[in-house]
Amino acid sequence: MLGRRPPPARQGARNAAMEPTKHTIALVDDDRNILTSVQMTLEAEGFNVRTYTDGESALHGLMTRPVDLAVLDIKMPRMDGMELLQRLRTRSHLPVIFLSSKDEEVDQLMGLRLGADDYITKPFSQRLLLERIRALLRRNEATRGEPGGQAAAGSLVRGDLSLDETRHQCLWRGKDIQLTVTEFLLVKALAARPGLVKSRDQLIDAAYGENIYVDDRTIDSHIKRVRKKFRQVDDDFNQIETLYGIGYRYKEE
């Protein structure tokens, strides 16, 4: 005997509950052609997209209507990408991908030091941007233990350092350290094996994932920013050691 079909309304609600939640991406660029083409690509891949053509409107929009990730250009009217990124980092560790031209190496490094998680140079492949967005969202979900990400491993304690992946929380001597997604993963990779030297390539794999290329100086910039954040609450912080020409390690207690 054939079973009865559930009522259409209930079936629709059940199907909706099974569908993964769409991520919302903010695109901030004063080049409307880039905004339109990237928006179409991301929406075709299932993302919700909000676009802004200047830094001021983007800051207001991101503070009042949070998103899952933002892609920021440098040169924009009313507030450039650098200032926007700096203001965002005083209020949020929102995952951020920074856009810069090939001849703006100084800006790339400055963007990382201000707290960008990743950067892409213009002109860029939209497929590359899509893959970087997906990779950063996966990393963010993994550190927070959200559905769709890897299961969070819980807490990691190393002396005065405490990392809680489920809350994306980093404490040093009981004081909160606001880390971006990339910074959190770097600290976790180093602190997980105190005394063990991690090469820059190993840290790139830990923070960005395999098969993603970033320059070695990107890791150096992130580490400098991490140290600065810890030293804002503890002038004597020196747990992350540099082994010149080799990499970094977390000092054993």
UniProtKB/TrEMBL annotation:
Q: Which InterPro entries match?
A: CheY-like_superfamily (IPR011006), OmpR/PhoB-type_DNA-bd (IPR001867), Sig_transdc_resp-reg_C-effctor (IPR016032), Sig_transdc_resp-reg_receiver (IPR001789), WalR-like (IPR039420), WH-like_DNA-bd_sf (IPR036388)
Residue positions where 4-aspartylphosphate is found in the record: D73
Asked if the record carries the keyword Transcription regulation, the reply is: yes
**Record-annotated Response regulatory domain positions:** 24-137
One Gene Ontology BP term is:
positive regulation of DNA-templated transcription
SUPFAM superfamilies reported in the protein's UniProt record: C-terminal effector domain of the bipartite response regulators, CheY-like
- Using the record for this protein, list the coiled-coil segments as residue ranges, or answer none: none
Top-level taxon of origin: Bacteria
Keyword list, A-Z: Cytoplasm, DNA-binding, Phosphoprotein, Transcription, Transcription regulation, Two-component regulatory system
Pull one GO CC term from this UniProt entry. cytosol
GO MF, one example: transcription cis-regulatory region binding
Which regions of the protein are recorded as binding DNA?
153-252
Please report the stretch or stretches of sequence annotated as the OmpR/PhoB-type domain.
Answer: 153-252
Annotated compartments: Cytoplasm
Any one Pfam family here would be Trans_reg_C
- This one is known as Transcriptional regulatory protein
Gene designation = chvI
